[in-house]
Specification:
By secondary structure, the chain is mainly alpha-helical. The protein is built from 8 helices and 5 strands, in the order E-E-H-H-H-H-E-H-E-H-E-H-H. The protein has a 3-stranded parallel β-sheet, with helices on both faces. A two-stranded antiparallel sheet has the order 1-2.
C-alpha cells in the first residue's frame, strides 16, 4: 500500500507517477471485460478507488481531491470513477469549448455504464465506487492578454461557456445562455509567479520575500492567496450541497 506524504498539518499528498502510463492499455481492456462481470478486470478498474479509500482512512481525510490531466483516457476514467463530483478547469478558448463537447457525454456514458452494467455484478467483498461524478461546476482560467489576443475574443468565448456546459455536461439542451450558476470562480493568469513557485517548491500563494517575491510581486502573491482561498470556499460549499 502506498502511504500518503504529509505536506503540512492537515494536508497529505498521494503522488502520481509517469510510470502509470504503462497501465493505460491494461485499464482499457479491463473496462470492456468488466461488462461481462470479470472480477479480475473489475479489481483492475477499481484499483484507484481502493488506493484512495485506503489512504483516506489512513490519515482520516475529510475531503479528497483527485487531480487528473486534460484527457479522457483509461487512467483518467479509472480515477474519475472514484469521484463523487467533478470540477472542470478551463479557459475561454476554442479548445476548452471543444473539450466540453467531449467531456459531458463521456462522463454521462461512463456513469451510466458503470452504475447499470458493471456495479450490479460486483460482489460485496470488492469495494467499488459509486461513480457519481456529479458536475460541480467549472473554473475559468483567464488568458494572458496581449495586443494580438483582443479582449473581445475572450469575451465572446466566455459568453458561450454557460450554454456549452449546461447542454453538454449537465445535459440540458435548453440551458439559458446567461445562466452562470455553475461558474465556480475565475482565476487570473499568474504566469509570473509560476517560475518562483517551481524554484521554491511551494504554492504560488505561499511565496515569500526570500523566494524572490519582492515589491509588487508580493502584492500579487497576496491577491493569489485571496483568490485561491475564495475558490476553496466555493468548492467546499458546492461539495457540501450535493
Amino acid at each position: 500500500m502506498i502511504s500518503p506524504a504529509q505536506v503540512v498539518e492537515g494536508l497529505w499528498l498521494l503522488p502520481g507517477s509517469l510510470e502509470l502510463s504503462s497501465f493505460e492499455d491494461r485499464l482499457s481492456s479491463a473496462w470492456l471485460q468488466g461488462y461481462a462481470g470479470d472480477l479480475a478486470a473489475i479489481r483492475t478498474t477499481t484499483a484507484f478507488h481502493r488506493t484512495i479509500e485506503q489512504a483516506a482512512k489512513q490519515v482520516g481525510a475529510d475531503l479528497v481531491l483527485i487531480d487528473v490531466g486534460p484527457n479522457l483516457g483509461a487512467i483518467n476514467r479509472a480515477a474519475l470513477l472514484a469521484a463523487d463530483a467533478a470540477l472542470t478547469p478551463m479557459a475561454a478558448d476554442l479548445f476548452s469549448l471543444k473539450g466540453l463537447l467531449n467531456l459531458g457525454p463521456t462522463l454521462r456514458t461512463w456513469r451510466m455504464d458503470w452504475q447499470k452494467l458493471v456495479k450490479p455484478k460486483i460482489p460485496a467483498a470488492i469495494s467499488a465506487p459509486r461513480a457519481t461524478m456529479a458536475p460541480l461546476g467549472y473554473v475559468i482560467m483567464q488568458p494572458e492578454m496581449r495586443l494580438d489576443r483582443p479582449v473581445r475574443a475572450f469575451q465572446r468565448r466566455l459568453g458561450r461557456i454557460p450554454w456549452v456546459y449546461g447542454s453538454t455536461v449537465l445535459g440540458h439542451e435548453a440551458w439559458p445562455d446567461n445562466d452562470r450558476s455553475y461558474e465556480t470562480a475565475t482565476l487570473r493568469n499568474y504566469r509570473s509567479l509560476m517560475p518562483l513557485a517551481h524554484d521554491a517548491r511551494k504554492p504560488m500563494f505561499d511565496l515569500r520575500t526570500a523566494d524572490g517575491a519582492l515589491g509588487s510581486t508580493q502584492k500579487y502573491v497576496q491577491t493569489c492567496y485571496q483568490e485561491f482561498e475564495s475558490l476553496a470556499e466555493q468548492v467546499l460549499a458546492r461539495a457540501n450541497s450535493l
